[in-house]
Amino acid sequence: MRILFLTPLYITNVGGLEILVRQLAPALRSRGHEVAIITSHGRESTSGEECIDGVRVRRVDAHDVIESRDAAGILRVELEILRFAREFEPDLVHSHDPGPVLWMYHRASRRERRPLVVTLHNVVTRKFASVLVVVAKMLRRADWITGVSQAVVDDVLTYEPTVAPRISVITNVIVPPAVDAFPVPDDPPRLLCMGRLDRQKGFDLAIEALARVRDRHPSVRLALAGDGPERTRLVETARDLGVDDSIDFLGVVDRDAVATLLSECTVVVMPSRFEGLPLVALEAAWAGRPIVAADSPGLSGAVVPGETAMLVPAEDAAALANAVAELLAEPSRARALGQGARALAVERYTLDRCADEYDAVYRRVLGRVC
Amino acid sequence: MLAFPLVTAGPSNAQRAYDVSTSVRHDRLDDEVIAIDLESGAYFALDDVAADCWSILAAGGTVDAAVDATAASCDVPPESVRNDIERFVEHLVRVRLLTASDRAPTLVVPPRAAKRKRRYEAPAIERFDDLEELLVLDPIHEVDEAGWPVARAEK
After folding, report:
1. Nearest chain B Cα to A298, which residue?
2. Residue B112, pLDDT above cutoff 70
3. Which class for B128: exposed (0-12), middle (13-18), buried (19 or more C-beta within 10 A)?
4. How far apart are CA A298 and CA A283, in angstroms?
5. What ipTM is given for this predicted complex?
6. Run of H or E residues at B50
7. Which of B137, B138, B140, B155 to mutate to test the interface with A (most CBs of A within 10 A)?
């Protein structure tokens, strides 16, 4: 079948959504499908068409024309979308968010409706109540909806319960990082936080926890990989708490560096306030590293408490610190959690499983339409 | 679409030219015209016969030209479509997509004349006033593991 992906952004932007789509497209092609992508362009790219991993990618400046309220530009972009979609002739459209690119595609293709699958990669209600009416409208048009975690699916049903008969969970996957999973290094103990430096990720809580952990484990260090709007505030917090000499703010790192960081860390710390299904949890699992995670939407579903991770109450730096300190004091327990995480990854987070599940959704949707 | 200036005396409505309103932008892809009113944000879609009529009028052609072109492309008598097209043009003026012009009309030769015939349907226009929805879906220029709709820091 011919599958048209819609994404808000694509490679060279590197986020969980882009990583998943970049893995999924070739996996679907290996199953005999043809895949093309329409996306908006970010700062790192420009409008136009290119081929990435054998997949045609058409970039349009959807975000720019919307942000600048350029109505004529909106018309132009919609025609670019329509032109590409008509030429590709998809059997099915799979949108990886219910956002502007999907809206514009839907408007542009009003005469040529194709079966539509929408995948949500994050909970929406926590931050963007104002968009829920429009998002709900977009989802009602979908023939099937998937969420990357049960938390994401539950979130959808709070604002659009009518889609309950046609929604399911398909968890994210990653290509396993090239990591020496075992043994887990612990001398000196190294904590790892990875992700965008924004309030959602809760890295301020990790820094507060570090101050308490260091009282019990003086040689502990925290590596913080990522960048974002909270960086300045986090650096100030570290300085105010007197732990800035125990933290390495690494900025954005590439995939090879991620593997190295995982190899070298003792515990992965994820104090997120909410998530969809964070790829860091999957990467830590593949690396056989124990996780100390906040019991928050999307994150608690990515781990098995007591088997692959320790869960602590959300927004609780003291509880986070206690859990981390416990694990550092009990290396055998940390190893056991890491082994459990690795076993979970092998069972659940494989690309073949993910591609098979999306393939099954596509066939179900096309079967219903036929 | 080929266009040549015509010289006519005192036009009737069927023989007058029309201008696309200055606040309107439009474009055509295949048998579909999309127009947008930059002032109101209203969005219009015209298909098939309506798209052909629009293309003729937007190029300076007359209602008579639109009637003749439609009759030829649909293989029907011109007088069987005239009322529909006149009402359609009146509607385009009423919604301010077109304005009556005093300039001389243009002879417009629609490219479709040689193509296969289409089934006649009275020209119609579809209007959408939901562009605000698109603006509510505020776009994001940076994506992290959370993806859209995590907002940019500057917002």
Report:
1. B146
2. no
3. middle
4. 15
5. 0.77
6. helix B49-58
7. B137
